[in-house]
Amino acid sequence: MYLKQIDIVGFKSFADKSQIVLSPGVTAVVGPNGSGKSNIADAIRWVLGEQSVRNLRGSKMEDVIFAGSELRKPTNLCEVSLTLDNADRHLPVVFDEVTITRRVFRSGESEYYINRQPCRLKDIHELFMDTGLGRDAYSIIGQGKIEEMLSTRPEDRRGPFEDAAGIVKFKHRRKEAERKLEETENNLIRVDDILAELTQQLAPLAEERARAEQYQQLSDALEEAEITLLVVEIDRLHERFQQATAAVAGQQAVRDEAQAALAQAEAAWRSARASFEETVSQVEVLQQRYVQLVEERQRSQGDLALIDQRLEHLAAAAEARQARQIEQARELEDIEQELARANAFLHEVTTKLNQRAEELNEVAASATEERKNALTAEIDEMSAELIEINHRAASLRNELKMLAEQAASDAGKRARFEQDQARWRAQIDEAVAAHSELAKRASELEAEMEQAASRIQEHDGIREEAAAAEAATVTELHRLRAEMQAMQARLELLRDLEQGYDGYALGVRTVLQQAQRGALAGIRGSLAELVHVDKKYEIAIETALGGALQNVVVDREADARAAIQLLKQRQAGRATFMPLDVIKSRRLRDGDVQSVRGQEGFLGLASDLVDVDPVYRQAVEHLLGNVLIASNLERANALARELQYRYRIVTLQGDVVSPGGMMTGGHVNRKGPGLLGRSRERQDLEQKLRELQESEGSTVERQQLLREQVSQAQQSRFEAQKHLERLANERQQLLEQMRQLEYQQKSAVERLEALVWEAEQLQSGSDAIALREQTAQLGLTEAETALAKLTEALAAKRKELAELEHRLAEAQEQVTGLRIEVATLRQEREGLRVRQQELANRAARLREAIAILDVEAQTAATEEADLRQEAASKRSGVQSLFDAVAEGEQQLELARQARLEREAAARQLEGVAHEARQVVAREDELLHRAAVAAERADADLAHALQRMGDNHGMTYEWAKSRYPLTGTVDDLEREVQSLRRRRAALGDVNLGAIEEHERLSERVTFLTEQRDDLVEAQQQLERLIDEIDTEMANRFMETFRQIQAEFANAFQILFNGGEADLSLTNPDDPLTTGIEVVAKPPGKRLQNLNLLSGGERALTAMALLFAILRVRPVPFCVLDEVEAALDEANVSRFAQQLKVFAAETQFIVITHRRGTMEEADALYGVTMPERGVSSLVSVRLADEIDYETA
């Protein structure tokens, strides 16, 4: 196996995706300081699972992500992938290639992949376990880390040796076994504790089970007697129900007659109502038609206004076009005048040129030869000129032939240009027309988009308003629910206090609890439970009653005696009882009451301020009938004096004036409500809780409604947004088409202009050719004339040579001047001809533009006529719509009057139906009362039947057949009371003790079996740990001895001599022993490692690394500047050893040293062409590479 490829993107300084393709052997990574070489080693360590940011030369995991540079933004993630060739199945997977990928995001999230499949970090650790690879393995030696193999404590040097021994997996398995053993021991302790507790519970639970079984026997007998009594009660209730049912049938007949009268009245009212609604529908139809007519009239008026605007636009365009026509006509006239002037001047110049040519001929002819030699020379010159003229004449004939051919070719081109111009003009016209249509549609789309945007804003407003209201309801719900939760908690507390009789004396609490369980009969409850007092009087009444609030109200004296007897038997305290059959009320004399009634501060008798069931009134008056309530202590003293201190007076603040004048008062530290206040507070809380629940329900309904509004607004906005997007897309497409048309039009115009320019150039060339033909023809004529004249003149000259010598010299000067003037005139004539052609071309273009404007004027006139015809038609339609609107308005008014009339009739009939409904309602009330009586009888019967089913689990018919009444009802009731007393005498009975005893016994048996399993598992885990320890010790010692031997050899090779050895600090304990390193370089004494030089320490550590690799080769090894402290000779030996070990291990060496580079098979260069961003350059080294230039 070897490392095949490294892919890095966004890791530290490698901002761009970088790929390092590796081969077996030695690969060197070189580059200047700070270029990012060591980031490659960090990337390999990181992808193999390194979690320590410190080992990655950072402070936090985010530091491994590219942080940006002066020219680049930071990236949001980094990713590193290692591709390993696994053809030899070194890794325990079935793939020939294995790719390990790690990715981290700036948010802190990490992802791991094996062959692009998501995995856990643990999976990567387990994959490389015992392979020599991994985050802590000896296969990656970081920058400056080589000496740490020697600097650490002896115990810390075990890591590479354990990796080489292949016991990492065993250590992992041992930790797992130890963890399971610890869990098993903890579970065993818990099981022992539970078993001990359960064993203690079994004995008392057996006693409770015996009592429960006796209780069940009594309960069964009591249930049979109660069932018999319940059968008798059901028979009585059934008879009462039959009588009530007959009364309901009679009232139902009366109610049916009233209902028939109501049906007749409602039928008449519904008929009138239907007629009214029909009229309303007609009004709505007419109203809708009227609105449609008005809208159609408005649309027609708008269309008419648009036509008028278009007519105004056409008029303005016609005026502008007429102005352009006038301007172009004026310019054409100026050009034609200038052209006429140019023609005249050309004629004048040509005439003058001919005159000067004649003068030149005359001067030349009249010249005399004054000197013979000069005339002889002139004759020779004329002879030469004669030859030249012959040659020029021949050249001019050839040029005329060539110009004729060129003119024919230009004529063909001119015809093609005219065809191309016509085609491009047609394309321009089509593009302009299409562009106009598209622009019109684009304007329409813009209007529709504005409407859609307006609708979106409207929906946004609705949604925001509803969302704000919905948020307010959420806040209100939170407030309500928090308040309800607090109230519910308080209410539950109060209920718990009441149910547990918290605050009551032990005796009172025992009596009330036993009464709840049915152990005591005739117990009505405590006085505090039976009375209700307004909050205003709570303190006063509680003060007046004092401990009497806990008095127990009973039906009879016998009930009180039975309760007292129970308290004695159970030694459960004392209680005060108030038997209703003997208790008497006590009240002030009427005269005393009248004497204080109406006085300031007198609030009333205490008994009158208490709300209580009449059954208990005598008990309340017994305690409070002679107690007065005053507003404050001062008024209480005044009342006491008025009554001569005969009665007890209590103030609202709880102060007391006792009979005889004794006063009690002061501050009372009330930590909570008393027994009266607790009941009142519970009732208030229940009422408030119901109100809050109703508020919550209405708020939830309002919230749901608002959510629906928000959802509907969002949906409407979504639809409007989609419509707007569709319009925008359509408009964008139209704009794109318009741009294409504009581009096509522009291209066509440019092409047309190019063709026009080419045609003009061709015309200019044709004009030049014609001019050249004229010039050449004229030159040929002149040459032929000159040839004839020169021949004649030459003969004359030769004849008159002697006579003309003197005249020839004199005339020569005049001839030269005339020739210059002739050349000047010819040049001026050529310029005039060119200007004449330019003016002609401009005039042609102006005529073409004027013709185009004429066509546009005709098109505009046609459109204006069509628009005026359409406007006339629209005006006629608008007038018709005005008439239709007036007629619709009149029909609408008539329909509204009919609606009012029918509405009045419907209301009258509705009154009749209302009276009939009142009659039916009265009869319904009577029927309801009869039905309620029947329902009550039915409910009582059903309740009795339900009690039969719920309490006894049987039907009435089955019970009547199985439990007949054998004696009298009184005898049966006495038997029931006896059974209840006997059962109550058992006291508190745990009926669940039977089942609980069985369940507990089963649990003890189950836990005992579980304990046996845990003990066996504990023993198995201990044996497994012993086996793992033995295997690890054997493997470690065997590997240590092999490394020990190889270390001595590697040390001698690297140091070229010397001695080295390894030893164990505790050989008797191979699993924890440390490892000592002893080194003696050549020529030195055996000394402590700390006394070695930096280079010697590094070389010693390398020897140890090579020894480990010799014993346990790894697939690849990363070395980061490990030879930095070595001199050149040692670097060479180190590099040669790399080549030796490269046969089995692939090396990736980050280096600056030349010797290491020379032994490398491949070279990667790391550069930083852009500041802060690393880049890679790879070179495959040949044997003959020049390292001096590398």
Task: Supply database-style keywords.
Taq DNA Polymerase, Chain T, domain 4; 24 strands; flat; 1190 residues; 6-stranded mixed sheet; alpha/beta; disordered C terminus; Rossmann fold; cytoplasm; 6-stranded antiparallel sheet; ATP binding
**How do the strands line up in the largest sheet?**
2-1-4-5-6-7
Low-confidence stretches: 1182-1190
According to CATH, what is the topology of one domain? Rossmann fold
- Assign an overall shape: flat
Number of helices: 21
Radius of gyration: 62 Å
The total of beta strands comes to 24
What structural class results from the helix and strand content?
alpha/beta
Report the β-strand fraction as a percent range: 5-15%
Name of the CATH superfamily of one domain: P-loop containing nucleotide triphosphate hydrolases
Q: What's the CATH class of one domain, please?
A: Alpha Beta
What profile does the largest beta sheet have? 6 strands, antiparallel
Distance between the termini: 30 Å
Helix content: 55-70%
CATH architectural designation of one domain: 3-Layer(aba) Sandwich
pLDDT averaged residue by residue: 78
Organism: Alicyclobacillus sacchari
Family: Belongs to the SMC family.
Subcellular location: Cytoplasm
Protein name: Chromosome partition protein Smc
Descriptive report:
The chain has 21 helices and 24 strands. Helix content is 69%, strand content 10%. Strand 15, helix 13 and strand 16 (648-651) form a beta-alpha-beta unit. Among the domains are: 1-139 and 1114-1190, P-loop containing nucleotide triphosphate hydrolases (Rossmann fold), CATH 3.40.50; 497-660, Taq DNA Polymerase, Chain T, domain 4. The protein is flat. The chain has 1190 residues and is α/β, with parallel strands linked by helices. 23% of the residues are buried. The protein has a six-stranded antiparallel β-sheet with strand order 2-1-4-5-6-7. This is Chromosome partition protein Smc. It comes from Alicyclobacillus sacchari. Residues 167-497, 675-751, 780-856, 969-1034 form a coiled coil.
